[in-house]
Structure formats: C-alpha cells, structure tokens
Amino acid sequence: MSMFNIFRISGSAISAESQRLNVVASNMANVDAVAGPDGKAYKARQVVFQTTLMSASDPTAAGVRVSSVSENQTPGKRLYEPQNPAADTQGYVTYSNVNAIEEMTNMISASRAYQNNVEVMNTARSMMSKTLQAMAS
Questions:
Q1: Using an 8 Å Cβ cutoff, are 81 and 91 in contact?
Q2: What gap in Å lies between CA 72 and CA 112, rounded to an integer?
C-alpha cells in the first residue's frame, strides 16, 4: 500500500465523520422540537456509511463515504399538553423522536473516529518526513 493511500483513506474517513457530526448536531438541536404546522415532528437522522475503493491500482485501499442519510421512522413522543398552542385536537403535542443519550454517544464516537484519523495522517506525515531526512543524509 502506498503511503499516499493512507492520506486518501484517512481523509475519506475524516470527511464521513464530519458529515456524521453535522447530522448529530442537527439532531441535538431538534431534541425538544414539536410538530410543525404540517403536524409532522422532526425525525432523527442517521448517517449510513459505505466502503469505497480509493485506488484503481490497489484494490486493498478501501475508504469510506456517506452513502445516505436516513430518517428514523420511530414515532415521536406524545405528551398531553392541552394548553400548548401546538397541541392537536385531543390535547397532545408530538415531539421529535431524537434520543439525546444516543446522540451524545454518536457524537463521542464520531469525534474519536475523527481524531484517530487525524492522528493516522499525522503519523504518516511524520514517517514520510523522517524517511526523506534519512535519505538526504
């Protein structure tokens, strides 16, 4: 495997985790959102990753990309709040189906994966630099 493939592979993972962090941030921002005027509450979104070939000349160099962002179809929580202006005719308010604990776990996992891939790139850069210094000596 080429040293440059390391940068491509880690770069693809960093990009995918960045998108995952953006989706988590959107979910967290809507954790207590109520149904809008259309009667539909915000639905949590999940990033779906897919393996992708990074180099046509090296079939072992597989990276990752975001193939889609799907909506969680679990119904949102309904609370009886007849005084709330967003309440339906029965007095219930539908909130988003975002689970704050799951989203915090996703955020920590995505952050760590992002950091690990940055560290891989830094280590590869350091190794390449030391190799070039040794060759110049």
A1: yes
A2: 24
The set of residues, in sequence order, having a beta carbon less than 8 Å from that of 86 and lying 6+ positions away, is 34, 35, 93
* Segment 40-76, tens digit of pLDDT: 889 999 999 998 887 777 777 788 999 999 999 999 8
Per-residue pLDDT at 19 exceeds 90: yes
pTM over 0.85: no
Q: How many domains does the chain have?
A: 1
Residue 120 domain boundaries:
3-136
Q: Got the DSSP string for 75-137?
A: PPPEEE-TTSTT--TTSEEEBP---HHHHHHHHHHHHHHHHHHHHHHHHHHHHHHHHHHHHH-
